[in-house]
Design a protein that fits this description.
The chain has about 300 residues and is an alpha/beta fold. It has helices spanning about 5-20, 20-30, 30-45, 60-90, 100-115, 135, 195-200, 215-225, 235-245, 270-290; strands at about 50-55, 55-60, 95-100, 120-125, 140-145, 155-165, 185, 210-215, 230-235, 255-265.
């Protein structure tokens, strides 16, 4: 007996994992009909049904569960092996995905030191946030804030806590330490940043005009231009604070979240990933020493 095409088993496995043809189609970047057809072709080739179909919902039957117990680890091992082979083929290239503002304001200014320490590595930086598919993107490492759930199969290490606080230009600094009447800059990418900071300090919501920007980076640029007061991560403004472009009138406080370094494989299995982990944690530790210079008035 010849086996059905491998693609049919792949479509079945994703459908079984999600228990939905619609969700499987989204993950596979195909139509709902394509998933349904591939699963039906597999069932016809095997001569048995794999799902119970009730009111547009699907449920694995006994045969489906038996097959899924075999195909799920098979495809997981296949993806892991392909990822490892790709890494071995480009051991001198390190692809790092990082949240955009941290990449622009903190990571990029420090990359010359990385290149000086590891001249044999070519680092490629991708600006992105949120969930990441390492196999599809070809990324080796990702720097993410732990404000979302990632797959348990990923390897992660916390590299620092998130410290937040309002920042502005020295000329825009509130003289009485009050936010009333000050123009507060908000970001659509972190819409709750101000509310979280106020709640941490048990402070009332100030009566103040607010301006919304599309991205956190734009808020910081607006604050640097003297257009108002922006909430910021310390890592995002460390250099501007050191140069005096910005001040932090209320200090910084840990908000309970952390930045993490993510990998699809154990860090110690890849020399280039281990090099980057050692380097970035060293620079992060230095940055966190600097935050102690600022009086923490919140928390």
């Amino acid at each position: 007996m010849s086996l059905p095409p491998l693609a049919s088993f792949r479509f079945f496995t994703v459908a079984a994992q999600t228990q939905s043809f619609v969700k499987a189609a989204q993950l596979l970047h195909v139509t709902h009909g394509a998933v349904s057809r591939q699963v039906r072709l597999l069932e016809e080739a095997l001569g048995l049904e794999l799902f119970e179909r009730r009111n547009r919902a699907i449920f694995l039957n006994q045969a489906g569960r038996t097959l899924y117990n075999v195909t799920a680890p098979l495809f997981e091992q296949l993806e892991s092996t392909v990822h490892r082979l790709q890494n071995e083929a480009r051991e001198d290239v390190l692809v790092v995905s990082c949240e955009p503002t941290i990449a622009m304001k903190w990571l990029i200014p420090r990359l010359p030191d990385f290149h000086a320490r590891y001249p044999h590595l070519q680092l490629q930086l991708l600006a992105a946030g949120g969930p990441i598919d390492f196999a599809r993107t070809g990324v080796d490492l990702a720097i993410r804030r732990d404000d979302f759930h990632w797959d348990e199969s990923l390897h992660s290490v916390a590299i620092c806590e998130e410290w937040i606080g309002p920042v502005c230009t020295p000329s825009n600094c509130p003289e009485d330490g009050r936010l009333e009447g000050q123009q507060l800059l908000r970001s659509r990418t972190r819409p709750a940043a101000w509310d979280n900071w106020l709640r941490m300090g048990d402070q009332p919501v100030p009566v103040a005009p607010r301006v919304e920007y599309e991205h956190f980076y734009l808020c910081l640029q607006a604050a640097t231009a003297g257009l108002g007061i922006s909430m910021a991560s310390f890592l995002m403004v460390q250099d501007e604070l050191a140069s005096g472009q910005l001040v932090a009138p209320f200090g910084f406080a840990a908000d309970g979240s952390s930045y993490c370094l993510l990998s699809a494989v154990p860090f110690e299995h890849s020399a280039k990933c281990e090099h980057f982990r050692t380097w970035v944690t060293g620079h992060i530790d230095h940055s966190l020493e600097q935050v102690k210079r600022f009086k923490q008035k919140v928390g």
